[in-house]
Amino acid sequence: MQPWRTAIVDKDATHIWVRGYDITELMTRAGFVDTVFLLHRGRLPAQGERTLLEALLVASADHGAGAPSCATARLAASGNRASLSAAVAAGILAIGDEHGGAGEALMFLIGDHAPSARRGPASMQDAADAVVQRLRDDDRAVPGIGHRVHTTDPRVAVLFGLAREHGIAGDGVAFVSALEAAAARLIKPLPINIDGAVAAILYDLGFPPSAGKLIFIIARVAGITAEVAEEHAREKAMRIRIPVEYDGEPPRRLGS
Question: What does the pLDDT read at residue 244?
Answer without folding.
Answer: 94
